[in-house]
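Format notes (please read before filing issues)

Several people have asked whether sequences and structure tokens are stored in separate files. They are not. Every record keeps both together, in the order shown below: the sequence lines, then the token lines. Line labels are part of the format and must not be stripped during preprocessing.
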Amino acid sequence: MISREENARMTLTGAAAPAGKLMRLYWQPVALTEELAGPRPVKAVRLMGQDLVLFRDEQGRLGLLDRDCPHRGADLSYGRREHGGLRCPFHGWLFDVEGKCLQMPAEPEGSRYCDRIRQGAYPARERNGIIFAYLGAGEPPAFPDLDCFIAPDSHSFAFKGHMECNWLQALEVGIDPAHASFLHRFEEDESTETGYGKQFRAASIDSNIPMTTLMREYPRPIIEVEPSPFGLRLLTRRPLNERQTHLRVTNLLFPNAFVIPMSAEMTIVQWHVPVDDTTNYWYAMFTSFGRAVDKDEMRRQRLELYQLPDYTPRLNRSNNWGYDPEEQRTKTYTGMGFDINVHDQWACESLGPIADRTREHLGTSDKAIIAYRRLLLRSIEQMEKGETPIMVLDRAAAAGITGPASMDAIGPAEGWEAYWKDVDRKRRGNASWAKSAA
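Then the structure lines:
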């Protein structure tokens, strides 16, 4: 059982909190690239309780600064993008992407006061539609050679959504193999021919059976959790008969992401990133090993459920997540529509702003949750001892973190351990850009 102290140690991400210090050792998504489109690429953002401003200067360089001007504290997200930086409208102080003060036009002629002023600035990098930020001290770690980072732009798509709860309870849903048989159960299966871009609508590899059918009809999975260089690998089997098993391979990508299959040719990496301790954004990268991604269709589908400019869900606590008791009786297990993101949102947000884990009663099917919490607490302890936690990588180590493999397939009951690796190798062999999975 988790104590209140352990719960706080795992969930709170302010700059002084143990988990907050740990999370600052890693690159974290801070915005979608598309959020800096348009004539004024300046955006207020909040990450792990810190108020920041993200912008591109006139040369196209990314800048990420503390949002309060060091002069009198005015909000720099209203700044003027000019003369090589971002200028505060209050008194004209000008800062470049490195936080250097370039001008103080109201100070006396010849004053060098601006040489002594430095605004908090943080590295920012783009990867396939997502802008990542590093809020830690010292040199940031290297990006691993994950599929989502090395795939060509044509084979990748990124999106995000806002959630009203702590990041950890949102992440834990993604590494819970058992919940899909219930939370995402549909009483009628949509044709796999019309399921493009929709999670759980595709057929499992080596079959024409929709994922939804398998999850519904085989609700008691056999779950195995293996440690890996990137975090945890989850192997979930649902025996179909003496000869066949449904096999789902997913992954926990430390510290706050998971990798899951979407279809025979597409996988998803999804981060749950603290805005503060009671809200988070999920950021998803969809990567195709086959045809190019239809980005317009993927975006259209998601904008039916999310509103710009803040990517807030149309179905939420204020309207009971769209709950319809008649639908729950006849069509879906939740009665909350056919998009699984809404189901996950209800499951996470209904736990409260920060879930009280002292009241939990975990079972055998929660072994991935248990393994991850142990890894998280152990990594915090390593950080506090001055040791290097998992996935804080130099370039040499980052090159060895590839993949990871993720799939949904019908395989043999005997020899499934080799089967899923063979399927992954074959899929990667058909994608010229893909590396072997770690």
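For reference, the curators noted about this record: The first strand starts at residue 28 and ends at 32. The radius of gyration is 23 Å.
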